[in-house]
Amino acid sequence: MTTTATLSDPNVATTLAACAAPLLAFAAIFLGARRFARLSAGLSIGAVTVSLAGAVFLLAANWHAEAPQVFSASWLVSDAVRIPVGVLLDPISLLMMTVVAVICFLVQIYSLGYMAGDPGFSRYYGFMSLFAWAMLSLTLSSSLFQLYVFWELVGLSSYLLIGFWYEKFSASQAGKKAFVMTRAGDVAFMLGLFVLLVGAGTLDVTAVNGPAAARMNPSLITLSALLIFGGIVGKSAQFPLLTWLPDAMEGPTPVSALLHSATMVAAGVFLFARLFPFFRQSPAAMGVFLVIGTVSMLLSSTMAMVSRDIKQVWAYSTISQLGFMIMGLAAGSFFAGVFHLTTHAGFKALLFLCSGVVIHALDTNDMFEIARKKGRRLKLAMICMTLAAAALAGIPPLSGFFSKESILAALAALDNPIWLAAALLGVLLTAYYAFRLIFIILFPRPELVQPESGRGHGSGHGAGTAMGSALVVLAAATLALGFAAAPLARFLSGDPAAAHPGPHLPWLPYAGIGLAAGGLLLAWFEFGRPAADQKGFVERVPALAALFANRWYIDVFYARLISRLVDRGLAWLCAKTDQRVIDAGLDAASKHIIRSSGVLSALQSGMIQHRLLVLFAVVVMLGLYFIA
Amino acid sequence: MQPIVDPFPLSPWIPGPFSLIAYAFAVAVITAILLFVSSWLGEKKPNPEKLRPYESGVIPTGTARLRFPVPFYLVAIFFLIFDVEGAFIFAWAVSAESLGWTGFLEITFFIFVLIVGLFYVWKKGGLDWRPQRTRK
Amino acid sequence: MNWMAFTPELTYVAMAAVFLGLSMAREDHRRDFHTALVFSAVGVGVSLASAGVTADLFAESYRVDLFSQVFKVLLACGFFLVVVLCNELSGVKRRLHPEFYLLLTTSTLALMLLVSSVHLLTIYVSLELSSYSLYVLVYLRKNRPRRESTVVHYFLIGASASAVMVFGIALLYGSTRTMYAVEMARVLPSVISQPAAAIGFVMTLAGFFFKLAVFPFHFWAPEVYEGAVNQLTTYIATASKAAAIALLVRLTALGDSSAALAQVLVVLSIVTMTVGNVSAIVQKDLKRLLAYSSVAHAGYVLIGILSMNPAGYAGAVFYSAALVTLKFTCFMVLVKVAADGANITVDELAGLHKRSPILALALMLSLFGLCGIPPTIGFIGKLLVFTAAVEKGYFTLVLIAMINVVISLYYYLLVLKAAYLTEPKAGLPPLPVSAGDRLLAGTLIVLIVGIGFYPDPVIQIARSAAAVLL
Question: Could you tell me the CATH number of the domain that includes residue B104?
């Protein structure tokens, strides 16, 4: 069902141009333009504009395309093994490509204001271009091998951007942590790819989703699905590898908006969607995914309820929303997961960019501090943030409402009602923590508000044109995207009815709205109303608050595990083996080789007679060998 | 290898690697024995007269490692080159008629290359056989 | 007669004639350099232009086909690059520069004739022409004590190899009654089981073993590498090796079906790479070290050749291209570091990364390539050669080769350690690297890594070149 395209095809040519432009910008910035900050930014933004134009063109051109298009070339051929590289254009990759290009473009525009005057301005834009290239290529990869390469490149650019302010110790630590934890998932991912290669004999995406998987042993399918899901868990910061994401907020805020909410962490969910038909072959694996999605969703919601750092709250909410997406996909609704991925990219990027404006203006991440410094005077940012928080909470008619509704509908179709119940609880918690933050900032306790300071902070120093325009565009998207459900469903699965998976339950939307409103009201009661003491119900139970604030002690558990098991157990054993057996053996071997080297080279620098003697003796022996 | 068909019935000998090795070994051993025995049994009464190099009855003077003037070597080389040239030209001359104009052109080219070489040698002072210090 | 097919060779004949003339003219080393540069660039162009030509010339003793043309392009490029390095030819007296270029040209011409020769006598004559040019070239090094001894050693070993080769040709002619390769390919399979034919065949290969420095004909390599002018050593390590590999492939493809022949080559290959790698460890002089590394690489190439399958031949062709690129990069760095034309020891590379980062990077990548670390062109070469051998079932051989690769890692890393980790001696200025040198180094780096990443086109060329032989 795929059509094979050639290089001259306008689709393929556009795709290649869209992918290559950021790479060229990256190369140009690091080869020459680094000294010229404005030139670097211009190159990078120009490149991402090309990508955006390409993505929009491709989406429009293929809106009614019937079959996915594949263009592939051989990268390496060695007799039986053929490793192809290629481009696969199908609804999911086109949609993701457009989302990535749009967010990249907006964030880069926004960064013009946010990063202005930073000494690493050019470096920042160089890394941004690297990321754009890797991420766009990831979405379009036609084989899992290629996808894995770009997956790692995306991880690398994430590491570089988290640790962008590397002179800050915590930033470089956070970069390392993110790198190592996602790597743990990637190891599983790679093993999964090996299992898949052995079982199905191919890593081609269309083949894996289609005929090749049908030939595989069911237990092998489950095994490889679970291992590949390991990569998704790492990249999308799901349970149990979820603690790197909040720390990753050490990077510049636009980076958090781009990588750690809208695009890169969504790559995990994208991979799920990409291999959706394959994963669906294994009901057991889908069950595991559902559990992990639910657990991550609930755990991170609880963590978000007590955090005081606004970026951290949004980070936890990202994990939780990614959990929602995985739940939707694992419940069997391709559309629900991908739709939520799309809407989430919009409103989450908006949330981060608004926070960026606030942080930039007031120089603090703490929400009480922001309230004290009169954060609400930053009008544009606060309006947009409230709008996005409402979308996050699932208040109609914003985009988040529609996508969350379709996930709930998908979960309602399952036999076991517990998943739906968990999701509804999640809706309540989401609304609560989102509006807790909003209310704390909007309605500061009067006695804490700082007296007017004469400094320029405050309303005069809000979003500049660059930053403001990005906010407005994203806010418009948040308002409008929800109504695109039906056309998107037709585009993604060829059937507008897919927008409403599962049985038609008239009460479900009301339940969703009701719970969201309940969460909002609870937040109003505790933080918003004038007489509130701004102390959440969780904080009244110290043990619970401590549990949530310490991220359910997951990090502590890892630290203990690593120090006990790895440092003192395994590492000690390995070190001893290394010293006693391997090093000693190697030392002895190399000593002998070096000694023999001296002897041998002495033998070869003798008199010419001896050399000729050896020469002819060998020839004579060869002759004898043939006679024998 | 093909067995050698032996007309004499007494010695049906087939060559093979073992016999070759045995033969080589025997040669080495016998040579060694002969050399050793002759030096061991022979009378040795060395004196300076006996140890002096034999120069057909003339008493040698100076060191044996004296340097030959290079021109001798050059003469030898030139002789070799032009001698070989001669060999080629004779071979051509014998069948000049049947080789026709092609052959003539080819031998002309051959001689031309040698002449260029000669000119090079001349120009570089290769034909200047005076001793070093009297050269211009 | 199709003169078009012969244009690359004619270009070099013309170049030789011009330099013969220049050698008798007034002394002017800049003029010599520029003339050589122009001519060798034209040579590259002409070889590229005639890359697709096929023809049979000179009573069928000379064949122009894709195989020979690929190697001619390689030789022309190698020669051009060596000439580029001759910008500061301070190891040779200025008045001898025309002779230097003249002999380099005749040697290249001979190698070009060699890769196209399909008659045993043409092969022999071309081989000798190239060897004699090199004997004289080695002698042109100035201020080198005991250079006579180096040349005489080189000459004696070369002459012995030639003698062995001529004897082998005689035996081969005796048993096949033909000197033409095409004929021989037809006759040889039926007579290769006879000792005379098999011995003759191996002895015929001896001439190329000498060129490629395969044990036991490798004794000249360290001394000649050390004794020759740096630029000449570059030439010996690149162009002349490529031609030797070409001929070994062409000849081995004739005696295709002999298991005994393969056995002999297996033994030679193992001994060659082991001797080369182990001896290289203690070398102090960088050129000597690279000489032994060349010996080791000759062993690796033999693995591809002795596999005697299309993949092996294609692998050997690819490997020769990789060797030319990598060895040239090494020597380019060496020539630039040893600006006064002297030999340098490994320790003198100290702090190269500070004195010239781009040269240090080029050196690192080329050494990685020589070790066979991905993603470099050298890795792909080794991969192709080794997989070809494994296909034929030579597991032990490949295992031994792997062990050798590990040993080789040791001395390559010693060089890198000197270049990257050791601090430069105080007072050493940064190396003057001109824009042209930068461009050259950059191009080589891109080639080494680029082909390492995307080797497919080059592999395809190597494969179709090798397919011509079968």
Answer: 1.20.58.1610
